[in-house]
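User: I've been trying to design a sequence by hand for this structure and keep getting stuck. Would you show me what you'd pick, starting by listing the structure so we're on the same page?

Assistant: Good idea, let's start from the same input. This is the structure you sent:
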């Protein structure tokens, strides 16, 4: 299956938190979108890998993505090395996306920057035809996505551009709340975590609203780039 956009996240819920509104919007515009989680988030303080598998599947349905896979790398301990790069390259060659979205370049959780660099390096390597890979017994063709963008997560990183997600904020938050075990719930007996506070829940809304304010719309999601943004005409920007 050929996809337009493939979003990677180190943990299930990273993609929804970082770029769920953008994905919902692109899907509404007719783009084919997939999500690949690197780990099952099995080291998470709350919930379990099995619970998070189910939550990730529910969230994927809310966003309307065409496919979601989990590479079952080790939460906390996966590395940016040949073995892991080849796993990502196989996914890039399988889905041949034009655009790849991946974790924040710098963040509180060490897997985020690690996952960010791993996916970015694999996007480059995937374009080298002398790196041979096979999937389901078939040799794969080299494929390099045209664009790699990094979404923003826990830390307030200055975005290089902001996507207007007005009209898609509810769908984004619904997809995040599908992860019932992870976020604010005053009735749970699970230990609290930085993302399980009411403050964090509120921040989903006000951070998107603040980015929207800065671009003159209701809500936004910010991204960073790896090379200069190119436009055909000055009128391309909103
Ligand atoms: Zn994460």
């Amino acid at each position: 299956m050929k996809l337009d956009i493939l979003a990677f996240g180190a943990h299930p819920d990273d993609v929804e938190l970082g770029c769920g509104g953008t994905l919902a919007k692109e899907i509404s515009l007719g783009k084919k979108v997939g999500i690949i989680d690197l780990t099952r988030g099995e080291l998470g303080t709350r919930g379990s890998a099995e619970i998070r598998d189910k939550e990730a599947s529910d969230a994927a349905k809310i966003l309307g993505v065409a496919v979601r896979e989990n590479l079952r790398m080790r939460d906390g301990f996966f590395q940016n090395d040949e073995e892991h790069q080849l796993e990502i390259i196989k996914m890039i060659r399988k889905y041949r996306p034009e655009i790849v979205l991946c974790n924040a370049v710098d963040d509180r959780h060490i897997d985020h920057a690690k996952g960010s660099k791993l996916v970015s390096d694999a996007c480059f390597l995937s374009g080298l035809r002398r790196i041979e890979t096979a999937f389901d017994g078939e040799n794969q063709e080299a494929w390099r996505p045209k664009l790699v963008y990094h979404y923003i997560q826990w830390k307030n990183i200055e975005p290089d551009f902001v996507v207007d997600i007005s009209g898609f904020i509810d769908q984004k938050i619904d997809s995040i709340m599908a992860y019932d075990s992870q976020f604010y719930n005053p009735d749970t007996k699970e230990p609290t975590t930085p993302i399980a506070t009411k403050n964090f829940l509120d921040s989903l809304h006000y951070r998107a609203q603040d980015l929207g304010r800065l671009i003159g719309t209701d809500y936004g999601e910010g991204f960073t780039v790896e090379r200069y943004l190119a436009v055909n005409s000055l009128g391309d920007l909103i």
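That's my pick for every position. To get oriented when you compare it with your attempt: The helical segments are 14-28, 49-63, 82-95, 110-125, 169-177, 198-215. Strands lie at 5-9, 33-39, 67-73, 99-102, 134-135, 138-139, 147-151, 161-164, 220-225.
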